[in-house]
User: What shape does this take?
Amino acid sequence: MRFITAASNATALAVAVTVAGPGARPLAAATPSQANGSATAIAQLQTTRACVGCDLSGADLTGLDLQGVDLSRANLDQANLTAANLTGARLDGIAGRATQFKRANLSGATLIEAKLRGAQFQRAILTEAVLDKARLREANFNGSTAQRASFVQSLLAAARMRAANLQGADLRFAQLDGADFSESNLRSTKLGRSTPVGATFLGTSLVGANFEGANLTQAKLGGADGFQANFANAILVQAGLRQTNLEEANLSSAKLMGARAIETRLVSAVATGADFTGADLTQANLQRSALSLAVFRQAKLISTNLRQSKMGGAILQGANLLNANFDRAYLAEADLRGILTNNTNFVGATLDGTVTRGADLSGAIGWAQ
Assistant: This one.
């Protein structure tokens, strides 16, 4: 248990902090002008468990038991709350730069509309915490646990969330431009209408995550596991999807123009009406995928597996189909004008009503319209 005492004399005011057990250290002495405000605020916090709107800038609250306290609208600029117990604390509207919450326990705490640019939350526990509309630009959440936490409409641009556990968290409408979620757990996380433009999800678990309507332009998802993830109506223009697992994912009406989806796994995915114009799907696996009315203009489908895929009415104008496999695929009414074929397998494919004007079918195997 940790407690606080305050002492003063004619020349200076010092605040001492004592920690039970070995390794205790006192809080550094402060001048009267610096310490009067923080010492008074800390004394009030100690007595009433509340200090609404207090000035705690630069305060050292390391390891303190602040469970359930009310620090709404407090100034925590450069304050140190490392390893503090803030379970269930009310921190709505707090403000500060470079505030330290490393290894702090913020389970169930509320930080609604908090302004904490560059705050440090490494290895902090934020399970079921509420950070809606918080401004957390450049904050560091590396290694933190934020299961079922809420970040709805929060600003997390350039935030670092590597190796974090955000399973079941709610980041709908959050601004995530340039954020780094590499190697994190985002299983079943809600990211609908969020804007992770240029964000990084390398090796991230996105199983069952919901990105419906999200803007992932130029996002990096290489090696991520998006099994059964929902990207319906999402924008993935020029996104990096190399070796990403999107098996059984929903990409209906998604925009993937210029996406780099080399060796991507899209087995049994639903991408009805999706736009892959200019995308590189070399060696991708789209077996049994639903691609009706999808657009593949000028796309690279080199050595791509499209066996048993449903591509009725799809547009493949000018696509490169070198070594592509359409075995038993359904291509009725598909637009194949200007396609390039070379060792392209159409054995058993349904080709009724396909448009092939200007197509090079010299390298088509099993073509039987």
